[in-house]
From TrEMBL, chain A:
Transmembrane feature ranges: 35-54, 98-117, 129-153, 173-200, 221-246, 282-309
Main location group: membrane
Membrane topology: Multi-pass membrane protein
Protein name in the entry: Putative spermidine/putrescine transport system permease protein
Keywords: Cell membrane, Membrane, Transmembrane, Transmembrane helix, Transport
Assigned protein family: Belongs to the binding-protein-dependent transport system permease family. CysTW subfamily.
Subcellular location: Cell membrane
GO biological process, one term: transmembrane transport
Automatic annotation (TrEMBL), chain B:
Native organism: Tranquillimonas rosea
Name of the featured protein: Putative spermidine/putrescine transport system substrate-binding protein
One Pfam family, short name: SBP_bac_8
Matching InterPro entries: SBP, TAT_signal
PROSITE patterns in the record: TAT
Endpoints of the signal sequence: 1-19
Matching PANTHER family: THIAMINE-BINDING PERIPLASMIC PROTEIN-RELATED (PTHR30006)
Coiled coil spans: none
UniProt entry keywords in alphabetical sequence: Signal
Automatic annotation (TrEMBL), chain C:
Naturally occurring in which organism (per UniProt): Tranquillimonas rosea
Gene Ontology molecular function terms on file: ATP binding; ATP hydrolysis activity; transmembrane transporter activity
Protein name from the UniProt record: Putative spermidine/putrescine transport system ATP-binding protein
Keyword flag tRNA-binding: no
Source species, domain of life: Bacteria
Keywords: ATP-binding, Nucleotide-binding, Transport
GO biological processes: quaternary ammonium group transport
Domain ABC transporter: 19-250
Assigned GO CC terms: ATP-binding cassette (ABC) transporter complex
InterPro entries: AAA+_ATPase (IPR003593), ABC_SmlMolc_Importer (IPR050093), ABC_transporter-like_ATP-bd (IPR003439), ABC_transporter-like_CS (IPR017871), Mo/tungstate-bd_C_term_dom (IPR008995), P-loop_NTPase (IPR027417), Transp-assoc_OB_typ2 (IPR013611)
Length: 313, 369, 377
């Protein structure tokens, strides 16, 4: 008798049992519907989101009556008219857009070399160190990080202390537009790197070597070959960073010193400070529209393949 | 929007000790009704929305703990922001649901919005109202949909170091270029609009019809890049040396001072805004819980409760004969006599409620520009 | 050339030497050297193929020559100049990569123009050059196509044009044909050869495909375990393999293990006529190798003409390969050794079936006797 050296692994026994159980709960005849079953929770969530949007859309068409603090019965576009004609919302929207664009540009500029170093380094230790340095702040929430910057960049903070050592008077580093951008970039960097890394991994190192052998110095190889080939990743990362920055609340609230509001802060004010759900809803919908419009424009210009949907190898 | 950053001070602790020992005395007053045979069934707890930090500690010491001792009903404190609980209550009432809290500790202005919306219970049958001053009565509303429990002043708080020649005499003193980037206001401008109207050369009588003087002055201040924030920000900014002056509620200044931050406060010649906070009960509670929620408010406007609670806040109450906290007897932030109010600006809740969002957006428009 | 030729560094004598590799070791720290003591020279205009199984060090050697890696020991020169003297992008080396490494975001023509732009050639002449090289690789008219719009073979051609357009001193081919199907591979082999002859560019090709090596090369180097086993012209390599490994790797070869008896190979007491290739001491273990086309096959009992050794065997298997049959014959006298024998005679199909008795034989010159070293791969 030959030795029976093969044993049926325990894991397979477990899987068999699970499959038998699954067969009872969801007979094989239903299998054509299995995909829908798995997608159901996500569809439900998206459905709820759409319901919420519809409700917000409805609320946006009623104005607040300040003598009763109820929304008007009649449908009106007055909230939208208010929002469009108000200098302050124009200013706030413009600031959000500018900040989102600046943050996106700076984040991508910093994230690209970081992701490149992480993907191309030959040392596993360096790669791990870069990953840890990336994830550590990722696990610290946005608000906590913003408060950290208050401490570090404040008048009595480390930075001004060090400047004091060399005889420089304390400088106001906080509570202005650059401080908000700084906070946003620092917050977005991990998102940028994590979106770019797979795109760079997908570019064979051979391609880069090939560019070198064809006469491209390293910077020119990056510029002419790696950057264009990383475009889907850059656009994907750019969209994520842009939309997150555009809709950010905490950084302008904490690092902006109150005078650097973004659209989200204005929406908060309407909902919670003046209890005007109508105007708040109108602003919220306009933010959704603005974000969708820009993302849509990017997709139209660069194709949906930018998020690796049906991307060609 | 209240100071939440600090725990109990030594003084606060002493006060709670006093409150506990004083509870036996308290029983005498409202007890006649509390111990009545026909009192409805007691709920195991009632939920009171409160501001955190020294605010809730003072409420516990003066009102909640003695109330629990007397009635056996636990008081749970919900520290949801006042602005955030408001839509939840409104939604609950609109949908005929049980509201999330029994008693809301609220600014009179916000409470008035809820009263106008009709989501408040009538409190005019509270027996202890008989013993309160006019301050307890909400202005421009029928009856008592809310009960004001104390007043407070939006003072001009300042770092004495920045004013070597003595306290600022006028709000216009802030226009000195050396305060560039070193002035703090509430981010909706609350508390600042009315003194600004005077400082801008206007009259309080023109509110709300003509507030251009106010906006002119706000624009002048805007040129000095003020910081805009909420209560916790002011204390942190004073502590970190980011600002020299702020327009803030005296309680926050007092808390900061007790925290060791070297600040003083004053009421400049143009005056300061005086306002009130209050307590109210949302509609939709079961009969017995409504009864005990009202008993809670009734107790909160008793002299015993006010004495301890408002010692903790350093604010003047709505019953006569309270002993001012140490050092605040003649303080401009602690008005008690009619002449104390001469330099304070009081605008009816009705006007505030109807114009607040307009004022906020004007203020924002200037500040965000 | 299997031992290092003296490498002269004075320019006069290297005038026609395009590549010289001298005593090169490459150590990746894995315990064994990826390349050990590799030395050879290549004359200008020649087509060299480095042939070996995977893991033999052939690709490493090519990458050392390309200058992508620096050898642990030894020296590599191209036209007398150390490879490390210039950064990669200033070297005059064209390379076609294993996975082609074409730039997918550019058209075929842009790919070809890329090295001209990078090397700052006169922009005025660039279009003509691009056209000329697209024509050279027979892609005229397809310059505007994107890379993914081209077939595998067309992509190969773009890669070749791109590697040659800047007229490099040296062309390196890193197994670019490995992924192609056989028909296309054979077509491209001929293309490589044609283009190389047309331009006269010195070329080094790396492959594991012995047929490709034989077809395209002027010279072949066979590598195994990091060492150069033999360097020779293709016909020489085929006819006179230097050792059992080379004999096995190129062509279809059967082996007989035994001892060298001073003149022939003794396999279990049976003397097999053969010619010693390496220096052998009488009585030492030896391995005989004979190619499938050199074993004669006949009916049982017949005498095979001119064969120095003739033995009885049994057909074990008959494999039909189209243009020929391969008989696998076991020989009981040789301890059931299996011989593979080609039979080219499509008309007379299946001369013998499985199990048939046959007669096999060979001449003294056809059985080559090597010193027995390791097992054949």
């Amino acid at each position: 008798m030959p030795d029976r050296s093969f044993r049926y692994p325990l894991r397979w026994h477990v899987m068999d049992a699970l499959e038998r159980g699954a067969d009872i709960l969801w007979p094989a005849t239903f299998s054509r519907m299995t995909g829908w079953l798995l997608a159901a929770p996500a569809i439900l969530l998206v459905g709820l989101l759409v319901l919420g949007l519809i409700q917000i859309g409805d609320a946006s068409m009623h104005v607040l009556d300040t003598s009763t603090f109820r929304m008007s019965e009649a449908y009106t576009l007055a909230n939208y008219a208010d929002a469009f004609t108000s200098a302050v919302y124009f200013k706030v929207a413009w600031r959000s857009l500018l900040a989102a664009a600046l943050t996106t540009a700076l984040t991508l500029a910093f994230a690209f070399p970081y992701a490149y170093a992480m993907v191309r380094t030959r040392s596993a230790t360096v790669r791990k160190a870069l990953l840890i340095a990336l994830f550590l702040p990722f696990f610290i929430g946005q608000v906590v990080r913003a408060y950290g910057w208050l401490i570090i960049l404040g008048n009595n903070g480390i930075v001004n202390d060090m400047l004091g050592v060399v005889g420089v008077e304390p400088i106001r580093l906080l509570f202005n537009f650059p401080a908000v951008i700084f906070g946003l970039v620092q917050y977005m960097l991990p998102f940028g790197v994590l979106m770019l890394a797979p795109a760079l991994t997908a570019i064979p190192e051979e391609t880069e070597i090939a560019a070198g052998s064809l006469g491209a110095s390293w910077p020119r190889a990056i510029w002419h070959v790696i950057l264009p080939m990383a475009r889907p990743g850059l656009i994907g990362a750019g969209i994520v960073v842009f939309t997150l920055s555009l809709t950010d609340f905490a950084m302008p609230a904490i690092l902006g010193g109150g005078s650097q509001d973004f659209i989200a802060n204005a929406i908060y004010d309407q909902f919670f400070r003046t209890a005007d759900q109508g105007l708040g809803s109108a602003l919220a919908l306009m933010l959704v529209a603005l974000g969708s419009l820009i993302v849509g424009a990017v997709f139209t210009l660069f194709g949906a393949g930018t998020l690796a949907l049906g991307a060609r190898k | 929007m209240r100071y939440t950053g600090k725990g109990l001070t030594r003084r606060g602790l002493m006060r709670s000790a006093m409150a506990t020992s004083g509870a036996a005395l308290v029983a005498g007053m409202p007890a006649g009704r509390l111990l009545a045979q026909d009192e409805p069934e007691k709920p195991s707890e009632i939920i009171v929305r409160a501001w955190g930090g020294s605010w809730v500690e003072a409420l516990k010491a003066g009102v909640s703990n003695p109330f629990t001792e007397m009635t056996g009903i636990t008081v749970r404190h919900d520290l949801t922001e006042d602005n955030e609980i408001q839509p939840k209550i409104w939604a609950a009432v609109a949908q005929n649901r049980m509201p999330p809290i029994h008693v809301n500790w609220d600014t009179t202005t916000n409470a008035t919005k809820s009263a106008l919306r009709g989501v408040t219970e009538d409190l005019s049958d509270l027996p202890n109202l008989a013993n309160t001053t006019d301050l307890a009565k909400p202005v421009g509303l029928d009856g008592y949909p809310i009960v004001n429990t104390y007043g407070y002043v939006y003072v001009l708080a300042y770092r004495p170091e920045a004013f070597p020649d003595g306290p600022p005499q006028s709000w216009r003193d802030l226009l000195d270029p050396r305060f560039d980037g070193r002035i703090a206001l509430y981010n909706d401008g609350i508390g600042f609009h009315f003194p600004a109207q005077v400082a801008g050369g206007g009259s309080l009588d023109d509110i709300p019809e003509n507030m251009e003087p106010c906006w002119d002055f706000v624009r002048e201040i805007k040129a000095l890049n003020p910081l805009l924030g909420e209560d916790p920000d002011f204390t942190a900014w004073f502590q970190n040396g980011e600002i020299d002056v702020a327009c803030t509620i005296s309680t926050n200044a007092l808390a900061a001072q007790q925290n060791g931050v070297p600040i003083e406060w004053t009421v400049p010649q143009e005056g300061c805004k005086f306002d009130t906070d209050g307590l109210w009960v949302p509609q939709g509670l079961p009969e017995n819980e409504l009864y005990w929620a009202k008993q809670y408010i009734n107790f909160a406007i008793s002299q015993e409760a006010q004495q301890v609670w408002l010692d903790g806040l350093g604010l003047p109450g709505v019953v006569p004969g309270l002993t001012p906290p140490e050092g605040l007897a003649d303080d401009p932030s602690y008005p008690t006599e009619p002449e104390d109010f001469e330099n304070l600006i009081r605008i009816s809740s009705e006007v505030q409620v109807q114009n607040e969002s307009e004022w906020f957006s004007r203020f924002k428009e200037i500040m965000q520009g | 050339m299997s031992t290092a030729e003296a490498v002269r560094t004075d320019t006069a004598s290297t005038a026609t030497t395009a590549v010289s590799v001298d005593g090169v070791d490459m150590d990746f720290g894995t315990g064994t050297l990826a390349v050990r003591d590799a030395s050879f020279t290549l004359e200008t205009g020649r087509f060299l193929t480095i042939l070996g199984p995977s893991g033999s060090g052939k690709t490493t050697l090519l990458r050392l020559i390309a200058g992508f890696q620096t050898p642990t020991r030894g020296e590599i020169r191209i036209h007398g100049q150390r490879i490390s003297a210039k950064p990669p992008h200033k070297r005059s080396i064209g390379m076609v990569f294993q996975r082609l490494a074409l730039f997918p975001h550019m058209t075929a023509a842009e790919n070809v123009a890329f090295p001209l732009k990078m090397r700052r050639h006169d922009p005025a002449t660039t279009p003509d050059k691009v056209d000329a090289y697209l024509r050279l690789v027979r892609l005229d008219g397809l310059g505007d196509r994107r890379i993914h719009e081209l077939s595998g073979g067309q992509q190969q051609r773009v890669a070749i044009a791109r590697a040659l357009v800047f007229e490099p001193d040296l062309l390196l081919l890193d197994e670019p044909l490995a992924a192609l199907d056989r028909k296309l591979r054979e077509e491209m082999q001929l293309e490589f050869r044609r283009i190389q002859k047309e331009l006269g560019v010195t070329t080094i090709n790396v492959t594991h495909d012995q047929r490709e090596a034989l077809v395209v090369s002027d010279e072949i180097i066979v590598m195994d375990h990091g060492e150069i086993q033999q360097a020779a012209r293709p016909s020489e390599m085929y006819r006179n393999p230097a050792n059992a490994f080379v004999a096995n790797f190129i062509g279809v070869t059967s082996f007989l293990d035994g001892r060298f008896d001073g003149g022939a190979l003794d396999v279990g007491g049976v003397s097999c006529a053969g010619t010693p290739v390496s220096k052998l001491d009488p009585g030492s273990p030896a391995r005989g190798a004979i190619r499938a086309e050199q074993v004669r096959l006949g009916a049982p009992g017949t005498t095979l003409e001119a064969c120095d050794t003739q033995l009885d065997g049994v057909v074990d298997d008959v494999i039909f390969e189209g243009e020929r049959l391969v008989y696998v014959v076991t020989v009981p006298a040789l301890g059931d050794a299996a011989l593979r024998i080609y039979h080219h005679d499509p008309a007379a199909q299946d001369l013998y079936g499985a199990g048939a008795a046959v007669r096999v034989g060979w001449t003294e010159a056809d059985l080559r006797i090597f010193k027995k070293t390791g097992e054949p791969a």
